[in-house]
Amino acid sequence: MSKSIVMLGMVLGGALGGWIPTLFGAGAFSMASVLASFVGGVLGIYLSFKLIN
């Protein structure tokens, strides 16, 4: 159960992180979007891990 919650946090964080730069005019495959997707995924993993423990 906990592994799936961490994976869900990673997917949601990455998706939201990749979507945020498009609100400011960046392309979906721009470097800002890729970097923000990475940061969002790491943040999603961190927050879901903190939620579990």
Could you explain how this protein is built, in words?
The longest helix has 22 residues, at 2-23. The chain has two helices and no strands. Helix 1 packs antiparallel against helix 2 (31-52). With 53 residues, the protein is mostly helical. It is 83% helix and 0% strand.
Compile the SSE list and pairings.
Layout: H1 2-23, H2 31-52
Helix segment tally: 2
The pLDDT mean sits at: 93
- State the domain count: 1
- From the alpha-carbon coordinates, what is the Rg to the nearest angstrom? 12 Å
Cα-to-Cα separation, first versus last residue:
13 Å
Largest sheet: none
Name the helicity range. over 70%
SSE arrangement, N to C: HH
| Coarse morphology | elongated
Question: Structural class, from helix and strand content?
Answer: mainly alpha
Number of strands: 0
Low-confidence stretches: none
Strand content: under 5%
In short:
83% of the residues lie in helices and 0% in strands.
List keywords for this structure.
53 residues; mainly alpha; elongated
